[in-house]
Amino acid sequence: MDTPSPRAVLVLAVALAGLSAPRAAYRHPNFIVILADDVGWGDLGANWAETKETPHLDELAAEGTRFVDFHSAASTCSPSRASLLTGRLGARNGVTHNFAVTSVGGLPLNETTLAEVLREAGYSTGAIGKWHLGHHGHHHPSFRGFDYYFGIPYSHDMGCTDTPGYNLPPCPPCPRHAAATRVARKDCYTEVALPLFENVTIVQQPVNLSSLAARYAEEAARFMQRASDSGRPFFLYLALAHMHVPLGVPPSPPTPGRGIYGAALSEMDALVGQIKRVTDSHGKGNTLLWFAGKHVPFPASRCPVKTPRAPAIAGGWGGGGSSAKQTTWEGGHRVPALAYWPGRIPAKRTSRALLSTLDIFPTLAALAGAALPPNRRFDGLDVSPVLFGWSDVGHKERQSHPPQVLLHPNSGAAGKDGEITALRLAQYKAFYTTGGAMACDGSVGPAEHHQPPLIFNLDRDIQEQEPLDVASREYQAVLPAISRAYAQALEDIATDNVSVADYSKDPAATPCCNAQHVACRCQAPGTHAAVLDCRTERRGTRLWL
Fold first, then answer.
1. Is position 135 annotated as part of the catalytic site?
2. What positions does the domain Sulfatase N-terminal occupy (predicted)?
């Protein structure tokens, strides 16, 4: 991934000029949700002073509100995205683990997305970036409420490219000739190139990862301009490739001390800064920009790629194994989050409310004056009082009936996928299952089921090192409330309108621009004419839906 091209800068400049023109006030606010992939809590300078690569995000924090107890709904890709767009955990919406390149299904079609709710309320809706909720048939984002889509259908390590970037293990580039020797490597996709979609059309395969960030910024500016021209409020869901591996290799040697990870973090920060500038030109009081991490950094095989930042907000309790991605430890789901809306959201504020990506759906629906879909229950809350500084509670409200809790599902560690294995009640966090994920040293913590549960007081022990003694007064005082809340949560899910995702696979569902070419390339590689041909074929090269 590289710095923005002159063409992208020109498009952004045009957008800035157009958006700064006086326009009638919108009836409803615009919404921009920026979701960063595999970003750590300490990757923002606003959270950890030793991080120097995020001046634009730090500015966003200074001009808005920073949330320090904010959580991803799951600790892996597809479930976390499904929960954001439905306001429901995987135990309800059916998405409990990741979809594959060959997946036939996706987010169940009977689940209503945030985009569908907002489009019904009069919004222009756009998704730019990673989808990973099904790409075949009507699971594609163009059929899930988005008027416009530009991005990749799943993680950018799930297909080969000509610019593979930095990964561990390193993956080879796409083969260019049928007779080329195929190098089979664990965790590397070498048969099919990573596609880039515009709506239902594959416009590039393999995608050029070096220019992807600039293209996302360009298309985001264009989408906002089109919405502004139409006079409709807009909802833009921008799901970044950063900081998921492979990381882009910088065009010049990284600044000493920053490394490749730092360079990629700077690129992500610059992209967010560009989006903020366009947003401000639209009118600072018109748009809510919500930035959040999807979940925290990658599993053990990729640990050497990332430089540790900030104290280990993770499971320090003994037992071994990973305490980050895929787990229910704080290191797996506590993510950075910022909200910016000049004139509405207080500036220079730090909120300790217990919030989640689950809350984005009901909050934006409420702000748009839209009703939530009927005949189903939601795990997210309307947290607009927290955004506006009127409250600092969120899911911490113990006095409600039933008490507000935040549930944490298993995302690939010990236990059944999607099963509720931990919960948060005020400052207390209870674990019913631990272990099962690989740590950076290669160890895998043994799967353990805890009955009664492990309970930590996060106010005193954010690193989750010392569970409360089961014989202590504190443990005995809080256990009944936790047990009731856990039983009520499981009963609530069991009696809900629960969906079931189709996880079946078929090679025919693989996005392929041209099956006659090696790695599904759109054209023969290596010539200027092929690039031109790709552009002229954009209307005709479609995924078989």
1. no
2. 29-370
- Beta strand pairing call for 70-71 and 355-356: parallel
Instruction: For residues 426 and 410, give the distance between their C-alpha atoms in angstroms, rounded to a whole number.
Output: 20
- CA distances to 287, 400, 440 from 27, rounded to whole Å, are 12, 33, 50
Q: What span, in angstroms and rounded, lies between the C-alpha atoms of 54 and 66?
A: 14
Give the residue ranges of DSSP H helices in 335-450: 360-367, 384-387
| Residue 484 belongs to some domain of the structure | no
Does 160 qualify as catalytic in the annotation?
A: no
pTM more than 0.85: yes
> Is there a contact between 450 and 431 (Cβ–Cβ < 8 Å)?
yes
Catalytic one of 56, 71, 97, 132: 132
How confident is the model at residue 191, as a pLDDT?
A: 87
Look up residue 181 and give its DSSP letter. Answer: P
The predicted-structure confidence for 185-196, as pLDDT tens digits, reads as follows: 667 888 899 999
- Give the chain's length: 545
Which token pair is 388? 């506006």
What stretches of 234-346 show up as alpha helix (H) in DSSP? 259-282, 330-333
Within a domain: 431? no
The single residue of 71, 77, 156, 295 carrying the catalytic annotation is 77
What is the C-alpha to C-alpha distance for residues 344 and 359, in angstroms, rounded to an integer? 18
pLDDT tens track for 294-323: 866 554 444 655 555 544 455 667 666 667
Which residue, chain included where needed, has tokens 């409600």? 400
Supply the CATH number for residue 115's domain. 3.40.720.10
By the 8 A CB rule, do 358 and 66 touch? Answer: no
Q: Measure the CA–CA gap between 70 and 292, rounded to whole angstroms.
A: 8
Identify whether 539 is part of a domain.
Answer: no
The strand pairing partners of 350, in sequence order, are 66
Total domains in the fold of the chain: 1
Residues 427 and 424: their CA atoms lie apart, in Å, by 7
Question: Domain limits at 256?
Answer: 30-175+186-397
328 within some domain: yes
What confidence tens digit (pLDDT) does each residue in 504-523 have? Answer: 999 999 999 999 889 999 86
